[in-house]
Amino acid sequence: MTSEPKIPDPTRPAGRVLVLLDGSRLSLDALEAAADLAHSRGAEVLGIFVEEVNLLRSAGYGFAREVGASSGQARPLDSAHIEARMHALAEQARRSLAQAMSRRGIPQTLKLCRGQVVQEVLGLASPEDLLVLGRVGWSAAPGSRIGSTARSLVRQAPGDVLLWTRPRQRPQGRVVVLLNHDQGANHRAVRVGADLALQYHQPLSVLVRTTNGDHQRVTEDLLSYLQQQGIAARIRLLPMASASAVTRALQEEGASQLVISRTCSLFSEPGADNLLMELSLPLTVTP
Amino acid sequence: MTLPTALTEDQVYHYCPPEKLSFDTTETLEDLDQPFGQERVLRALEFGAGMAARGFNLFVLGPSGAGKNELVERFLAKHSATQPVPPDWCHVYNFESSDKPSALELPAGQGREFRKDMQELTNELKTAVPATFESEEYQARLQELQEEVARRQHQGLFEIQQEANRSNIAMITTPAGFTFAPMRDGEVIEPDEYKKFSDDEKELIESKVEELQKKLQQAIQQIPRLRKEVRERIHALNEEMVQLTLGGPFGELREKWTHVPAVVEHLDRVRNDIVEHAEAFQDDGNGPPSGLLNRYRVNLMVDNACTEGAPVIYEDLPNHQHLAGQIEHRAHQGNLYTDFTLIKGGALHRANGGYLIVDARRILTHPMAWESLKRVLFSGEIRIESLERLYGLVSTVSLQPEPIPVSVKVVLLGDRMLYYLLSHYDPDFLDLFKVEADFEDDLDRDDSSYELYARMIATMARSVQARNLDRGAVARLIEHASRLASDQKKLTAHDRVLKDLLNEADHWASRNESDLITASHIQQAIDERDYRASRVRERSLEQIRRGVVMIDTSGEVTGQVNGLSVLRLGAMMFGQPTRITATARPGKGQVVDIEREVKLGGPIHSKAVMILSRFLANHYAPMSELSLSASLAFEQSYGGVEGDSASVAETCVLLSAISGVPLRQSLAVTGSMNQHGEVQAVGGVNEKIEGFFNVCQQSGKVDGQGVLLPASNVEHLMLNAEVRQAVSEGRFAIYPVTHINQAITLMTGMEPGEPDADGNFPDGSFNRRVADRLAEFAEVGRKKDVNGDNGGNGNDSGSGGGDDDQ
């Protein structure tokens, strides 16, 4: 992004930007997005590369075979081979991180750990941190649009999580914040959405899922918050319809980024998260 | 021997008395529907235009400016009006073979409608099909499909994972795929610890891992098939949706065009094509690609919506492309592109079902145009091919439009020479142009023709937007038409000459602020034309006046006569006298034509001189040797001589040279002669007489001069007013002669004399003097032979044209 670096908001704790790197293409994309975000927030970046212990262990078995994810061909797998590949990937992650951050003059460190990815990341993340990761890594099962790691982290991470995916080219996209009218953490999501809108020079839309009857209150509440914060946004009320209706509304809105609160009722609906993932949009989940 | 009497004024000019014309001005005359006097052409046109069999195309022959085009167009316009209007033709995209656009035949006038229908359909497609794809229904069904496949894909792997977990085996993802390892409490067991397992346990685990690997392999290998299946099902869904969307508009169009099965077939093909390319209509922000929509357009090549009757097309520039059509290209970023919408029909397409008029000379001067026309006429179909392709100069891929069957009557216009040359040298010509329509140059002049000719003039005057003519002007024009035809009994039919004259007379009438064209305006137009072209004639007369060119118009001279010649310069002709001289001396029966010896004489002239030398021999020395060495020359002639019209003059001058009898220089002679001494007609008599008259006039007074001309030429005389006046006053005489003896009498004043039974001419007669002189020559020749003195004995070999002066 070419925007001028912003002075960090003193009212907000300056958390770090954590990037989960695994050497996959999408993680490199996510790295660029993280760099942009860190640049605008004036935050430092911590790269995390986890050597999955289960993988290392399984390579130690004499009978271990690796079945190709695309070809289905089985070939021998041994520890030395896997170790070497892990090292190579870690090295690549280091290089990419250094390259991406030095271009923007952002302080960075790479944390190499060995263990289980989710545990390692949760161990490193604090509530102020923004965790950035690719929606799927190389470890994604074919056909799945969201990796198991991402799924776990979205649900468990203490701070904001940005699931990065390559956004579809939309010249006039909007940043859309999806809320539930009765949830508590709305303001954080709106704040994050406003930041993103500012950073990407895109307009902001707030979609609120409501049940009948309490439109007035929700709108007033939101408007007063937005006014107070000096944020210009379009507010749209959605009935508590199915997840696919939400998807449609997002398409209509021309969403290019989505911010959603973890407490949003949508998450509790069956298959809803999957549907949300179908939208090929960078997704930020706030606690 | 009866001497011919000089012609009277009435004999040298065929007046048109105004009382023969029953009108005051041409305003009251109706236009002629049919051209006057061209019955032969009209019958040929009638026959050719109505003849359905192949190869009966027409060639209209006539000199340029005869009004062929106008006549043919007028005739065909009338003839074609009652014939049916031919169908429209369009080219449409060929979905089976894209480089061979198909041709569609539609009832006349419906091509436009079809084009409009297809345009509207295309516009509808642009919005209707994308709208279908954006509909809730479609999106929902698409999502269902995609989810189902994703689920099935995921399901396969998920089941394997579940099965593995049940057997305490972990399915671990690697950078390139998956692997299996024994697990405990969600973590992979350390390999070292695994070693401690009993062999049975290990065997169990490893066999399970192997089994899972195989299942996983199978599941992964299913994925491409699954993806293919989903693609197929999405395609089927697209097709279904598009079919439903198109049902309405296509149904209406099919109903509307049921009377043209070819259109219905095309509509079906379009529909299938749209269904096949349904994905291309999905909205990606830019709408469906224009290349795709262009395929559904209609190139209306022949539009007969406004045609009444059969078309009559005159192709002004009959080159290959304009006749057979062409495939144009569009330049885009330095490359040339074409498609079926850039096919352009030619004159043959437009004339299909009707008539095509083409100028023969023009079509022959354009490369391949003639060959293309013949090929179309032979094959009965038009195949559009570019010139460079015909020449084999390019081999790039281009279109080959479906040939269109053609039934056209071609009318070629050309001069006669072209017709005869084509008949002679082009073997196909007579197969294809079987009907010859020969234009009449001249029309008969008799009492019945005056009225029609006057109407013809009135029609012409109106067509060139000239004023009306009064009766006198028409009479003068009729007289001039006879002069142009060089015949008292004919009138010229030459359209251009008459129209030009009318235009010019109209101009002079306007200068004189006259409402009508009168005889004086016609005369002025004739005189002005004459004057404009008179520079060379004036110069020639001047040279005679100043004595540079020597012509005597009085007195008597031996061995010298005034012949008459005609010069043609552009459209003008004028006559002038030429001095012809002869010498005679003993020799071996030779008449040397000096013009021929120096190659200034043409073959006809040589023939005439040979005829006259045989006439001499036969007439004066039938039983003995002709001992004569004579020479003939056109004095001061440097440009060559052709024709036999001087043979009477040459005979006179030769006989004068032999006999020593002088000839009257006040008379000029023209006429050709045969071996029996009979005088035969020649051309250009009016110009010749007027030419000599002018010379006489400028050398002093015209008094007693005259011209001898063949009696058979009298009816060609249409002399100008000055000559007529001199004739009527007896100052200038025109003698019609039928035999050489009459000419001799007039030129010498002597009786020629008829031979008696022994072949001897009477004493004192001219012929006797000639015979005696020739006998003297023979005597001299014999003496020389006896003396053995042959050296240079007048033995003109002719090779040197030598003047063996001894």
TrEMBL record, chain A:
- What start-end ranges are recorded for coiled-coil regions in this protein? none
Q: Which residues form the UspA domain?
A: 16-163
Q: CDD domains, per this entry? A: USP-like
Known Pfam families for this protein?
Answer: Usp
Domain of life the protein comes from: Bacteria
Similarity remark: Belongs to the universal stress protein A family.
Its name, as the record gives it, is Nucleotide-binding universal stress protein, UspA family
- Where does this protein come from, organism-wise? Marinobacter segnicrescens
From TrEMBL, chain B:
Q: Which residues form the Lon proteolytic domain?
A: 555-750
SUPFAM superfamilies the record matches: P-loop containing nucleoside triphosphate hydrolases, Ribosomal protein S5 domain 2-like
* Gene3D superfamilies, per the entry: 1.10.8.60, 3.30.230.10, P-loop containing nucleotide triphosphate hydrolases
Alphabetized PANTHER family for the sequence: ATP DEPENDENT LON PROTEASE FAMILY MEMBER
Hey, which family's this protein in?
Belongs to the peptidase S16 family.
Active-site residues are 645, 688
Annotated coiled-coil segments of the chain = 195-247
One biological-process term from Gene Ontology? protein catabolic process
Q: What class of enzyme is it?
A: hydrolase
Enzyme Commission designation: 3.4.21.53
Keywords, comma-separated and alphabetical: Coiled coil, Hydrolase, Protease, Serine protease
Q: Which residue stretches belong to region Disordered?
A: 780-806
Top-level taxon of origin = Bacteria
* Protein name as it appears in the record: endopeptidase La
Show the Pfam families listed in the entry: AAA_32 (PF13654), Lon_C (PF05362), LonB_AAA-LID (PF20436), LonC_helical (PF20437)
Bias type Gly residues, positions:
789-806
Which reaction equation describes what this protein catalyses? Answer: Hydrolysis of proteins in presence of ATP
Q: Name one GO molecular function term.
A: ATP-dependent peptidase activity
